[in-house]
Design goal:
heterodimer; A: 177 residues; mainly alpha; 2 domains; globular; B: 196 residues; 9 helices
Chain lengths: 177, 196
């Protein structure tokens, strides 16, 4: 439908409809593959694969990588989550293309500089990377997928993630509001 | 019948291909809901945009109810579906560290890939941070190992621990979710913000 509204308001999907669709994707993952969705696990696979390629001797005698191979067979990149994350990039790109949101930019509050935003993005990524290893999964793999299968650990991780962010929100408010 | 891959109804390679298709759905839905924007995600913590809570809990509850119904109809054997193991101490500490990462970085791992896919440079830098964090954990593993393995409890379901059936727990969670949706709509009116 043609509209005459000139504002550049970005249109997003209704969050409850989006939530139901997300739930159906997660249900499909459980029905088809017997597991939930994830993200940080794919990063772990890439970390293991690159270390094995660059420093095979180091990886062979280091405990973290040895334990990875006790839990996973085959090449670390031939992994369910790696394929799923490649899909996420394609799906995200397709959605952004359809909605006209493809654009290189640093998104930040007008009250802070791009530089400050990028420094905090890097720090946040580092913290999330470390935390996701301790939590055995991130917001997707541990919290969301854990909720779907009523996992105690998943629900605890979820409460700790959101609780932790709320506790610290006051200290970082200048970055966002 | 289900899970198809566990019951060898589909081959491992078909399973990988379907993982890719499922990922497309996952990324598409996240981006459509606005999860490619850190300022929208961070709204949850300041009350100006509760989209994360709405999508997250609607998604979790939908999948949970779906699995319970699929099990009831005999379409999926819940004993073959992966339940995340619980290492209580590690889960709590890891969750808090992730919370710190969330409020600083404005993304979580899945959403950062969505943001990067549509060109958000802050999301790409967040991903660089993720890799640094995981490398740091891998190389510093001896330092983390005790914590990582502490509080092991197997893979309990919260319903079992509360001595409730899965269905009753699911009902409680649905009621909690509806309460939170109601509260979210109220909070958004209370802390409104201009277009961001």
């Amino acid at each position: 439908m043609e509209t005459t509204i000139k504002t550049k308001k970005t249109r997003y999907m209704n969050p409850y409809i989006g939530g139901v669709l997300l739930g159906l994707v997660l249900l499909a993952a459980n029905f088809i593959s017997g597991r939930g969705l994830g993200a940080s696990g794919a990063i772990k696979s890439v970390v293991v694969a690159t270390t094995q390629t660059v420093a095979p001797k180091y990886a062979e005698k280091t405990k973290y990588f040895k334990e990875y191979h006790e839990e996973h067979s085959g090449s670390p990149l031939k992994n369910w989550l790696v394929f799923q994350m490649l899909g996420v990039i394609v799906g995200g790109f397709a959605s952004g293309a359809l909605a006209g949101r493809l654009k290189f930019k640093v998104e930040h509050s007008p009250k802070i500089t791009s530089r400050r935003r990028l420094i905090f993005a890097l720090l946040g990524g580092i913290f999330f990377g470390v935390g996701s290893q301790l939590g055995r999964g991130c917001t997707s793999g541990s919290a969301l997928s854990g909720m779907a299968v009523i996992s105690f650990g998943g629900i605890i991780t979820m409460m700790a993630i959101f609780g932790g962010a709320y506790i610290l929100a006051w200290f970082f408010r200048r970055n966002w509001i | 019948m289900g899970p198809l891959a566990v019951n060898d109804i589909i081959s491992p390679n078909t399973n990988f291909f379907l993982a890719f298709v499922i990922g497309i759905g996952f990324g598409f839905v996240l981006e459509q809901c606005g999860f490619s924007s850190s300022r929208k995600l961070a709204g949850l913590f300041y009350g100006y945009d509760m989209v994360v809570l709405k999508v997250f809990f609607t998604g979790g509850v939908t999948a949970m109810l779906g699995l319970l119904f699929f099990s009831l109809f005999g379409w999926v054997d819940l004993n073959l579906v992966y339940v995340n193991p619980t290492f209580l101490t590690s889960a709590v500490v890891g969750g808090l560290v992730m919370g710190a990462g969330f409020i600083m970085g404005g993304f979580c791992p899945g959403t950062s890939f969505c943001g990067a896919a549509i060109g958000k440079i802050d999301a790409m830098i967040f991903i660089v941070g993720l890799f640094i964090g995981v490398y740091f954990f891998a190389f510093g593993y001896p330092m983390f190992e005790t914590l990582y393995k502490s509080g092991s409890m197997g893979s309990p379901k919260i319903s079992t621990m509360l001595d409730l059936s899965d269905g009753v727990f699911a009902l409680i969670l649905v009621v909690i979710a509806l309460g939170m949706f109601y509260a979210s709509e109220w909070v958004e009116k209370k802390f409104p913000r201009e277009e961001y």
